Amino acid sequence: MILATDKDDSKENQGLWFFPGGKLSEHESHEECLKRHVETKVGLKVSLIERLSSYDMEIDSKGKIYRMHPYIAEIENDAVILEVQARSEWFMPIQLMRLAWSKTDLPIVEEIIDRIIKTGNITKARACVAV
Hints:
Radius of gyration: 14 Å
CATH topology: Nucleoside Triphosphate Pyrophosphohydrolase
Distance between the termini: 16 Å
Order of helices and strands: EHEEEEEHE
Structural class: alpha+beta
Strand order of the largest sheet: 2-5-7
CATH architecture: Alpha-Beta Complex
Largest sheet: 3 strands, antiparallel
Low-confidence stretches: none
Strand content: 25-35%
Mean pLDDT: 80
Oligomer: single chain
Number of strands: 7
């Protein structure tokens, strides 16, 4: 199962799905950042299993480019506490293609689908994907 959230933080992004994640704090690794954001935003503790392909993405109209670092993570607890997101939902991998995704997370969806087509699964663990 894969966790996706709806940020609902702007008219531009309203109704689009995202993977949980966020920006680095000073002196924080990508891994620490991801764990902190997932726990803060949706109440899940995760163990990072595998890093997916990093990519660059222009997120705002100012032209600033962000480097995205997605991971596959194993869930350590089942609580989902929405603090920032309007909603979150668990999806089967096949359902990902039917969702309206943020442009920032579409490369992750494409990599997951490509991996499933080539190997038949994402990983052996019960997983969610986050950036």
